[in-house]
Amino acid sequence: MSPRPIRYGMVGGGPGAFIGPVHRMAAALDGRYELVAGAFSSDPTMCRAMGEELGLGPERVYDDFRTMAAREGPRPDGIEAVSIVTPNHLHHAVAKAFLEAGIHVMCDKPLTTTLPDAEELCRLSEERDLVFCVTHNYTGYPMVKEARERVRCGALGVIRKVVVEYSQGWLATLLESTGQKQAEWRADPERAGLSSALGDIGSHAHNLAAYVTGLDVEQLFADLGTMVEGRQMEDDATVLLRYVGGARGLLHVSQMSTGERNHLRLRVYGSSGGLDWVQERPNRLRLLSPPGDVTVLYRGSANLTDRARAHTRLPGGHPEGFIEAFANLYRNVADTVLAREGGGAEPFADDFPTVTDGARGVHFIQSALRSAEEGAWVDASYEP
Amino acid sequence: MSPRPIRYGMVGGGPGAFIGPVHRMAAALDGRYELVAGAFSSDPTMCRAMGEELGLGPERVYDDFRTMAAREGPRPDGIEAVSIVTPNHLHHAVAKAFLEAGIHVMCDKPLTTTLPDAEELCRLSEERDLVFCVTHNYTGYPMVKEARERVRCGALGVIRKVVVEYSQGWLATLLESTGQKQAEWRADPERAGLSSALGDIGSHAHNLAAYVTGLDVEQLFADLGTMVEGRQMEDDATVLLRYVGGARGLLHVSQMSTGERNHLRLRVYGSSGGLDWVQERPNRLRLLSPPGDVTVLYRGSANLTDRARAHTRLPGGHPEGFIEAFANLYRNVADTVLAREGGGAEPFADDFPTVTDGARGVHFIQSALRSAEEGAWVDASYEP
Amino acid sequence: MSPRPIRYGMVGGGPGAFIGPVHRMAAALDGRYELVAGAFSSDPTMCRAMGEELGLGPERVYDDFRTMAAREGPRPDGIEAVSIVTPNHLHHAVAKAFLEAGIHVMCDKPLTTTLPDAEELCRLSEERDLVFCVTHNYTGYPMVKEARERVRCGALGVIRKVVVEYSQGWLATLLESTGQKQAEWRADPERAGLSSALGDIGSHAHNLAAYVTGLDVEQLFADLGTMVEGRQMEDDATVLLRYVGGARGLLHVSQMSTGERNHLRLRVYGSSGGLDWVQERPNRLRLLSPPGDVTVLYRGSANLTDRARAHTRLPGGHPEGFIEAFANLYRNVADTVLAREGGGAEPFADDFPTVTDGARGVHFIQSALRSAEEGAWVDASYEP
Amino acid sequence: MSPRPIRYGMVGGGPGAFIGPVHRMAAALDGRYELVAGAFSSDPTMCRAMGEELGLGPERVYDDFRTMAAREGPRPDGIEAVSIVTPNHLHHAVAKAFLEAGIHVMCDKPLTTTLPDAEELCRLSEERDLVFCVTHNYTGYPMVKEARERVRCGALGVIRKVVVEYSQGWLATLLESTGQKQAEWRADPERAGLSSALGDIGSHAHNLAAYVTGLDVEQLFADLGTMVEGRQMEDDATVLLRYVGGARGLLHVSQMSTGERNHLRLRVYGSSGGLDWVQERPNRLRLLSPPGDVTVLYRGSANLTDRARAHTRLPGGHPEGFIEAFANLYRNVADTVLAREGGGAEPFADDFPTVTDGARGVHFIQSALRSAEEGAWVDASYEP
Questions:
Q1: D161 Cβ under 8 Å from any chain B Cβ
Q2: Which residues in chain B have their CB less than 8 angstroms from residue D259's CB?
């Protein structure tokens, strides 16, 4: 028997959005979801236009998310899950409304703009026994999963050093002053939260390193910079990390590194080996050996672990990309939702970033902001 | 108004198939297709299992493609298009049946196993005014389209030399003797046609070079090899090309190049520049300049031509892959189908490989087989 | 008329040394030097063995450097220059002895183990009007010189961010406890000075960034780690930089990054472009443009600036490496020495790291050590 | 005891030459040679200018090579070896003159312009028991030697396919009509011999493949092209190879591939693995494994074979290049010459391309020219 598709709705993702369409493509790719409702924009005209474009019945297109939650919850054919792709400042309220309506949540990152908000979502999703995925999508790549498995099985020995970088150049000019929608809200403290670079991409970098290494940050020292004149928040950040157990880390992110596209890279060095993964060449994982030789594993190889192989669709040499990785989150959430209905659990169904991971990310951002303000090392340990 | 999704069916693509799921994902990605019918396997049990897995009603799952064509054609809610993903020897009969039922066709390559069969499909699709796409999917990549535009606008000057290579290693052992489904039919002359390497991957290489350069082959010299003992058809082929107008080409393909994954690469050298595209790094196009410096263009760049930009979904640095390129064919076919209903034509809607391109491919394979048999240069010019 | 070869001697570089032979090959490559004297080892037997191996007359092989300086200085055919390739703690005394004997100096880095020592050498070389080169050899690469020129001519706009990394893995084990000669002295505070990673490779990274950007460090924050148990000095260091004028920098070096060979990389981001140079692929310079496209310049290209072209020997595609870059320092010193005899000055003859650059490096190391000790930002401005 | 330097002279290599300085740097690098005589140019003024620039006594600078051979042969301090770096048409006469004078020979490639000439040099060097090295320098790279060893030890299984390519773009225009010295003689049948692309770079490609695989060509089919108008000889060539034992090969070279610098690449595919070496990244050897994963070996690694390690000077990550590889030929010849004096033989001293390899190259070129003329496969087997 085939798994039935999950009925889902979307909040945000109206005309001109970037991440909304990504969620929709990720949901569509494997045929595991059916989009049946949405509150796509706070502008009713744009909202309806998007509903129509997506082929939704007008009664399932809502002017505001609260109405949507209120109506979809009780409907027998109501949505089972919601994708939240609004600017950051709305994540909390939207997620809360849908959780309270008994609806599973896929929420973009960062989870919230304050830690108490994040923790409230943790509590709510636990109380209601609802699935809550925060789309730290980069951990959806099969070769990231392979990296995680290699670390876990001890192939690198004891982890000593982590270097994670996320460099972009799209904000090398004051783009937010030109009316560009993405830049506008991401650079606006009202909508993005207290942080720009750290919130938008630092949270991904932090999550990626945590996912692969399994290490928790104990202390950190952060240095933030605003390098483009007229900008309100930081567009550059470096964070020195001390992990529980003694490993050291370096996390650096930038939105004003002119000419960089989306350069997320993770390197992990252990006592007996190293690894190197670059998001812009995601089908590859480089394993470094002590004499300096490198084994390059490719997605699709028969040498990969079960976890990596379970998250890929094509043979080696047929590149998978960003959407496929994103779709892995959606697919695992679908499997998890169905398993709760009593279906058998798929292996690795629980392999997606949760609301707790989201809270960890918020805590990390806040700790970094505090360190930067104090110009000092701060305690960054956290147990959500 | 949103474009409505096209109702489509599938022939082939049952359990364990490789290319069937690719077509389904490509069709699903943009929400432009709805799978409503299928004849997935000649084994009725497997066929039904696949129909169920895909959520089709039992009355839309057919034991044989002829019944499917006969019933779907007249239904008011019948399929408008069919995807043919069977072994090669069936392409002709299946395509013919659906064309005769007035249904548009997406057919995997090579189009047919004989030239007369290919030409019959050309005629039929023209007579019935039906859309017929042969899924030479590699031309769906945005950076291949960029390459085409750069050649067309004269950036390379007069084309002098083309080197196109397609190397794989998956048939470096006698895999077809192990029961592996893919290898079994592709290495079986009854099902694959007269050629293995040339038909399976040589046809892609030929199409890619033709698409980018716009050049027609005038003469060729082919040398085929069967390097794995026990194999019935060639697993290695080199073809020397003379293009109309004097350029030279070298096309070489292999299925037994141990360790190669899916190494399709096109290089074009002109009087004032060169270009280099590698399928395993598809988001990149290298432009070679006379002093030896290289400009690397990336998908998503603002510097790309309209054609390339119209065929991409994500910003730079967010890798797109094989499925996205494949989906570009599906999307353009959908636009073309809808335009025939009177909708406005989307720009570039006609940018997909047609039945005529398919016939060119079959002619190329046959010419190469003839040259190899004769050990001599042969005339390879063709006007379908 | 040909430039006559410079007579030179060497202190250090006995059997088993790494950098001594490099200096000899660098001096030999262009035929601009003649090795005529040496004090190769503090062990007289090894010293004499090396002298013999190098074909020196026994009277020109000295048991100690002081005797060598004392005798070579007055000889009419005495050495004009000396190469100092001893462990760090001897640099000062050796350099001083030869300067006082009126002999030009090529000294390995770091210049000295204390700043007063470094400054004394600055004074001495200036008073005696002697050439003093500190072999920060990485600035000898033609593509590093190209990078410098591109920055100077404004191709990147205003510099905003510098990322320089130097990662090695050779000390990922406690190699110094195994009798390995290189590791032994470099990890020994008595011979290496107060720092290991910073002194050995951090000083190169600092010099490279300074050479290319022309920026001076104003403040820094350093974090040092000793990650291999039993080690006496740091094998990992991260330094946050604030440059005069407001640019930010990140310098990170490691000797225990398992699997890294000699990964020195410099990236510079400005308001209108970026650049990226990697020592392990030294014939290349990547120029990053705002839309994310990359121009890759190659050594030997006709597009390079005069400075780069003056420091290369072979056409493009014929790789030059470490020794050739090193030899560029030697050649420029030879030109400078001869120019002082009244010969015409060669263009770019003064393009080599000087004793002043060496003092800057020592100051940088000391500032970083101080910051790490205090756990605070420190003033790092320096005018030697 | 140190090996004493070999006294050598040079024929050709006057002002403006490319390969002459390369030979001189290669000879100088390791201090194993001393240049003491030369006939650098047929123009006496230029010849003397070069002699002076190189610091030679005027009595050791000769207006013509015959006088040089006649005088240097009998001198007690006469040259022991000669480097021949003239245009191709002179190789035979010069080499013959020096062999007859009892002098060892380093001769650039191709060895001669006719096979009988080549064979005469084989006979002469054997009769006189003189060392004769033809500078197919690419086999001097350590990672090429590693490739050879890996093939020899069976790591690839039975060799099935060889792809060797040598693409350049420097003759993409009619450079020979501009007075450029290199282009002028290499494109002139009188001085280059009957072939341009095949002779200049095809001979390197052939030699490289033979060195690594140990396979002999049995049959070949060649197709030559002259793609730049006004050119007298071929600037593009493709040669299909059948090796003794059944492996197939593809050799393609070009001088008009606009934008290529010096792209020599060798790939070898066997029944159980593959390898890939690219001259422009010479410190690397890629080993391909059946599932498509790749092990990248780097020069300097402790994992390399003795042969590779014996031909390298620097640790991993410190790039070696073209000159270092070239110098390996010179060093091995020096070891061989000294061993004949009764010194102990160094391991791998005989690892350089000999006059016999040179004759094989000439035979290969002639076979290819014949095949191209006949438009047919020809027997290419040869036992010198």
A1: yes
A2: 269, 273-274, 287-290, 292, 294
